Give the backbone structure.
Amino acid sequence: MIRPHHFTPNAETARDNHFQTEAAADASLVARTAHAEVTRAAETLRAAGVCVHLFEDESTETPDSVFPNNWFSTHSGGHVAVYPMYSPNRRAERRQDVLERLKQDYRVQDIIDYSGLEQDGLFLEGTGAMVIDHLERVAYAARSKRTSEILLERFCTHFNYEPVVFDAVDARGQPIYHTNVLMCIGTDFAMVGLESIPDTARRQEVAERLYRGERDMIALSHEQISDFAGNAIELQGRDGFVLALSSRALRSLDAQQRKTLERHVRLLPLEIPTIEHAGGSVRCMLAGLHLSARTPRPC
């Protein structure tokens, strides 16, 4: 996780991120509130037994640094990927100190850096652009300016995933900028905004692929997607799996959806309304660790 000291919704990314909204307060209050929200979120995760590495960002040039999952991802076997970012002012979010900490605390075999492909107009914004099914070895991706199908194919070849690409739109018919806004894949469940996939045949194909592992399927409405219900992540806690999601997302789920989820995970809501002004939520705030630790408890 990254704790920003100068958070603000990014005007540059608002061009295609239609989930962004204006923060009503002045910039200094927004920054202080966002800092406090990240602090509380990290504390809540740690209290649940989730291992959290928290880095500070004191730069005024990286308004979206709170979303590190877009610039790097980790994978079993000691593999790390670094990604090219669509918006120029997000490229400074990539940090060598974060990668060095990974190599220090975890067994990193290689780092594949795709970021140079920004010069060729190829972008793939990490586990925002892709939602990865680690069990079935599938990378789901909604088409957008931030997801190059060419680079997706290259990533899947390097990391041994099958790409599944589809179009996805919001309730107004506008393309959804990141796949992880509409899809969350857990061990025994999947939440997905199926009605966001306008092609009915492709929608059915995606649903069947997700169900192949005999998961419980939870279909999310456009309204629930707008409330970031799809932007959640299953994490390993002290006493089993937890599902980290925002309080807003949890409120949007109906009683049956909650009951289905609670068969598999403990729901762990995080209060982050200021962060959500930037058009992302809990999943975007967490770059997952799928590496083997060098010590029993590296954090």
The longest helix spans residues 27-47.
